[in-house]
Amino acid sequence: MTPLENPASVSPLVMTFALAVQQTAEIPTHSIGSPALWAGFLAFVALMLLLDLGVFHKQAHAIRIREAVAWTVVWICLALLFNLGIWIFGGPDRHVLAIQFLTGYLIEKALSVDNIFVFIVIFSYFKVPPMYQHRVLFWGILGALVMRGLFIWLGMELLKIHFMIYIFGGFLVITGIRILIPRNEEIHPDRNLAMRAFRWMFRVAPTMLPGSAAPIDYGKKFLVQIDGKTWATPLLMVLFVVEVTDLIFAVDSIPAILVISQDAFIIYTSNIFAILGLRALYFVVGGMMDKFHYLKIGLGLILVFIGIKMAGQEFLMRKLYDDPERHSISPVISLAVVVALLAGSIAASMIWPAKKTPGTPS
Known about the structure:
67% of the residues lie in helices and 2% in strands. By secondary structure, the chain is mainly α. It has a domain at 53-182 and 240-351. Mean pLDDT is 75; it is low at 1-29 and 358-362.
């Protein structure tokens, strides 16, 4: 018998890895997302975005709070109607899938609050006029549609290897704990690696003429012609930084939603519905971020719960139930925990407002 044929000569770690790959790679991935459903959803998103930019926001203008609230309500209602459609027409597992969609939507919506805070800092630093902020966010959404799809596909492929659930789960727990630990962090866009990379890749048009203190207004253009050469405007740089920021946030949000559902259609649609409403939500809560100071605690606890659920639910189920077929926490329990933590953190922010620092206006 050759050394390769002797099982004792194979490392236990290698054997464990091989068995994990063999057991999980053969698990079929079921999804309610038929080609017709995927095509219909993408067509719906494209139609809504065309109406948004080509009709309702054809002329660049500052978004008023009433308009932002109206669009926020529209996107929430559309998401809930879509959720109702899953509940009614989603097949044999429609009720479970509908709960998974709603849970994923709420998680992504809550995590979007951090995006909004960073967007405020970016727009303030680059002095982006309010009338052009919606345009930047619109094109940022288009990039997010592609990037989130790639991230979801990559995450689902990685989860076919069983031990990746422990890596993803541990990552979410660590991320949640980092959010829970108070730190005085300041965001400095001028030190942003994305901005440095952009300046390295593109010629950035000057912001002011020599000898003049007045900034150059390039309007809503992303590219301009100067002396026969194409230059990127500062607005395109802002868009690039926003896209990179969303990519970084996707590293947290995609593993979190992969715990909730294994259906690619449910994961993607709940993610995209939350992102589509992000622009309007930005203009609604942009000036009220300090009023939800406990929301970060809620988000941190949600990520810790999801991480523990992902990495330890099989162990917990074996300890709690004497049923080999029961290996996952009920989607209803997950939804209840997410809703309770979000509602509790918002209620706590209202009951115990943030203390005003001396010298700040009330």
